[in-house]
């Protein structure tokens, strides 16, 4: 049979695509340097249109499905999938922030589509020909999806499984060796074609002096050469997570290194990378030396790319005056996927704002000094911080990891109740207390007893 006549149904586990993609981007592959002290790169984006086109490879795409959880990384993500013939299946997370119903829904849809197709093919010759041309393209690596995939194969329908090497269950490789209708493919091999890195900050513009440096354009460098893509290419060699911001028409490039403990070490490293002709300094020194206020230097808007920017892209989204709620550093689940891609995956010309959504910042410039002080102090609330990833104080890596893993969790109530789950294996990751030592009192903000037992 001519493969060009194949008809593809796509079943996509959204979190499997982008979470593993961010881990791959930070791992030190052939396209990007390894990130220091981080297991994922939140700047990584997936170009949905190119992903679909690459997987279908010239074949016809039929009704497809995308599965994910609320809160969505960005409503535009689901709209973009819908544009490419996807039916979105979005489910609420558990109270602990875990995904629920996603695997079961994906399993049910695959099985239903396969069984219906097999039943129709028994009595209809045209349906039989359709069944022969049908290919299920499944993006997952989760072993839990093995039973429905086996069911599809038993119905006589070919399956192309795609996933990341790091997340691919070895049982699929064994199954492939015993069934010619199953092929296993790795997204690692098409990473460069379907992804890019967005170095432009996507959260509400807010300079945190303790994490920020300012790079001035060398006098002998042409204006058209100096942009955030140029700066990003050089800073990539540092192996650090950073976000770039353009100043308001000046030669300054403002670069934030989220959570860095020693900004002076970053400045020294940046000076080595850029050379002696480039002036680099910390934000406090820059702002005091040049008598600059944040409102004079930074564009007070939140900009992010549309989801997909190729010839099939729809018109730019309407602007909104509603403030972005994206947490610092683009925590997982926020602004997950966008579009546009250059060689080296370095984004677009910052002067071209077509298709950008702009959200005005409500962060008063006069609070910059207070933020600078908070950025050098340990958060007094620790794991029980109500601001979570938005907090301007310093949090430990373990605390930040929990903020990312449980985006909907109210951490003010972390460990304030006793766990009632029999045989709970989550240990310290469980939001409920497993011992007296873990309990937290809301009245006196202290450990060792529950609120009802407080004597203060």
UniProtKB/TrEMBL annotation:
Against InterPro entries, the record matches this protein to:
NYN (IPR021139), Znf_CCCH (IPR000571), Znf_CCHC (IPR001878)
Q: Name residues in a coiled coil.
A: none
Q: Which GO terms describe its molecular function?
A: nucleic acid binding; RNA nuclease activity; zinc ion binding
Record keywords: Lyase included? no
Q: Which UniProt keywords apply?
A: Metal-binding, Zinc, Zinc-finger
Ranges for domain CCHC-type: 441-456
Q: Does the keyword Zinc-finger apply?
A: yes
Region of interest (Disordered), ranges? 307-381
| Pfam families cross-referenced by the UniProt entry | NYN
Ranges annotated as C3H1-type zinc finger: 405-437
Residue span(s) of domain C3H1-type: 405-437
What this protein is called in its record is: NYN domain-containing protein
Q: Which organism is it from?
A: Cercophora samala
């Amino acid at each position: 049979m001519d493969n060009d006549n194949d008809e593809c149904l796509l079943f996509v586990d959204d979190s499997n695509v982008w979470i593993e993609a961010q881990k791959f981007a930070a791992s030190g592959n052939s396209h990007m340097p390894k990130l220091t002290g981080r297991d994922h790169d939140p700047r990584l984006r997936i170009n949905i249109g190119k992903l679909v086109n690459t997987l279908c490879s010239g074949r016809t795409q039929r009704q497809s499905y995308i599965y994910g959880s609320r809160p969505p990384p960005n409503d535009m993500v689901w709209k973009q999938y819908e544009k490419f013939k996807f039916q979105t299946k979005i489910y609420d997370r558990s109270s602990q922030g875990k995904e629920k119903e996603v695997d079961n829904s994906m399993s049910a849809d695959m099985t239903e589509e396969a069984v219906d197709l097999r039943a129709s093919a028994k009595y209809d010759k045209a349906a039989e020909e359709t069944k022969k041309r049908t290919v299920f393209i499944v993006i997952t690596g989760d072993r839990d999806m093995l039973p429905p995939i086996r069911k599809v194969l038993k119905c006589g329908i070919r399956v192309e499984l795609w996933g990341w090497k790091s997340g691919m269950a070895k049982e699929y490789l064994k199954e492939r060796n015993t069934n010619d209708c199953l092929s296993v493919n790795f997204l690692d091999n098409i990473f460069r074609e379907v992804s890019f890195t967005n170095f432009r900050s996507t959260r509400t513009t807010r300079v945190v002096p303790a994490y920020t440096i300012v790079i001035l354009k060398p006098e002998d460098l042409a204006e058209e050469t100096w942009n955030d893509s140029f700066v990003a290419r050089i800073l990539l060699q540092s192996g650090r997570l950073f976000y770039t911001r353009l100043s308001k028409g000046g030669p300054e490039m403002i670069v934030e290194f989220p959570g860095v403990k020693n900004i002076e070490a970053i400045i020294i490293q940046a000076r080595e990378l850029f050379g002696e002709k480039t002036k680099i300094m910390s934000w406090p020194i820059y702002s005091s030396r040049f008598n600059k206020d944040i409102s004079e230097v930074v564009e007070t808007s939140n900009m992010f790319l549309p989801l997909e920017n190729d010839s099939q892209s729809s018109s730019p989204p309407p602007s909104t005056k509603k403030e972005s709620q994206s947490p610092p550093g683009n925590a997982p689940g926020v602004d997950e996927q966008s579009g546009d891609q250059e060689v080296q995956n370095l984004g677009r010309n910052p002067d071209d704002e077509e298709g950008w959504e702009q959200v005005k910042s409500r962060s008063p410039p006069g609070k910059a000094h207070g933020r600078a002080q908070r950025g050098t102090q340990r958060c007094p609330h620790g794991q029980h911080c109500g601001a979570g990833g938005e907090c301007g104080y310093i949090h430990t890596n373990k605390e930040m990891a929990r903020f990312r893993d449980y985006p909907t969790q109210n951490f003010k109530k972390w460990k304030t109740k006793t766990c009632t789950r029999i045989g709970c294996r989550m240990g310290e990751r469980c939001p409920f207390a497993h011992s007296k030592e873990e309990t937290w009192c809301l009245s006196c903000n202290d450990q060792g007893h529950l609120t009802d037992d407080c004597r203060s």
